[in-house]
Amino acid sequence: MAIGVMRAGDACRGVFSRTRSRSRRAGKPCARLRAAALDAADGIGEAELQPQLSFEWGSGHWPSPQSVVKLVATDVDGTLLNSHHKLSQANIQAARELRAAGIDLLLATGKARGPWVEDVAEALGLEGTPGVFLQGLYVTSDMRRGKGEVIFERTLPPGAVAAAVESARSRGLTLVLYSAERIVCAHTDEHSDRLLAYSEPTPEAVGDLAAFVEAGNPAHKVIFMGSEEDVVAARTGIEAELCGTFDCATTRALEGMLELQPAGVDKAVGVQKALEHAYAGRGLTMSDVMAIGDGENDVALLAAAGVRCAMGNGSEALKESAHYVLGTNDEAGGWPVAASLAVHSQPWLAGI
């Protein structure tokens, strides 16, 4: 399923507000980025789309006065793409403005390197750039399928997969396994088929998942799938059974899904590996990075970044840790505002 491009006229309209921090302890943002935020919003408001914009000062500690964004690391579903899994014209234009300002763009997602990447890479001009996939567990030198090399990966041990199979069976949950650029399951059903809406690789029925891994196929992560109520209720028990025995951890990205992956690896680790490999000559560090996300699986990435942006449709915990809370992923005042903040952080635009 191809990723569509939403027309500019389809962009939802937010309400632009310049609010004070929601937390006394947060204080005020540094002068450069606070001015950049207001200038960015004013600038986008005058753009061709003429959207009304919305962002708030978040509750996190503010970036240092020297913060200059050199790379934007962004989540995909719920952040870069809208609720219909489309890439808006406003976001495409914002990405072009990032590149024109000399700012790199890196996608950091829980998704596999599947059919969606070609459409997004072409639309955003990301051919040849690295990709951080599977929550940081699979990092490639080129985000496109069949291109580049794997520069970092981590997998679950076969015993953890076998235990996950039994845990899912006992709870009546569907278990899908991400193996590099494949998604496999014992048999497909209405839950595994939900992944097709995200333009993921088509789930393959392979029978016994434990045997699949024992045969030498990698298991980067597994996802327990079911109703939202069933997944929420099962989380504590699954963690007690699996995380206490194996070196693994859980996270959530979408409703009705609980992910199990190797402990100690997340999107922040994946982005760091990409920086070390592809941007080593520029000496970029996480303090040079603006991170944009919406879910629990983005918490570590935002925590490690120099500038932290949470989507308005994101979790409350993520918003509390952010420097900026944007509009939703269905608003032109969402992702484009973060991109413009990055552009306006540049010294030659900030007047210093």
UniProtKB/TrEMBL annotation:
It holds the Pfam family Hydrolase_3. One of its GO terms (cellular component) is cytosol. GO terms for molecular function: magnesium ion binding; phosphatase activity. InterPro entries: HAD-like_sf, HAD_sf. This is Uncharacterized protein.
